[in-house]
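Quick note —
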Amino acid sequence: MKNKFDKSILSDMKNDIKNNVQEIKTSAKDVKENVKSKTEQLFDHTSSNFEQFKQFMFAPFLLTFVISIVIGYNFSDVIKSLTSFLANLIGYIWMWIFAFNGNHPTHTLESSLVSLLQNSLTLIFISYIVFYLIKTINKYLKKNREQQWGYDQAHEDAIKIQKLQEENIKLQKQLIEKLDGLNNKEL
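Predicted structure written out below.
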């Protein structure tokens, strides 16, 4: 009897241990799923905020506004410098033709030419930076083509329509050729 008692106690203990192990596995699985769920929520929330930030910072209208101000301001400086240089050049030529004293100062002409070159190089440099900034934004931050800066839906639609029209013309030609072939066989 003692032997049976020990076996039943051992069997009960074994079952209790199995149940406890199963509960621990279930608890661990629940904890793991909970951590995974919370982590996904955190990433989704962070990703959502980052997407909203990207949409704000790199919105085509905002970029267009900033670019038009920066490049427009520099372009107006180039035009002013060009106008100043041309006025100084005309003044220098005027003095050279009508002032026969042999004294023709060139410092205003030189300074206006230097200003024109500086403003032109600044415009080119800023345009270069903006171009590659937009290219980088489109490549790394905007995954969908429709969201990329410079995307033109109307142009894309026109290209699709043009391709469909070309296919339609090819099919019409094939149909006409087949009909002509059938008509020639009947005659």
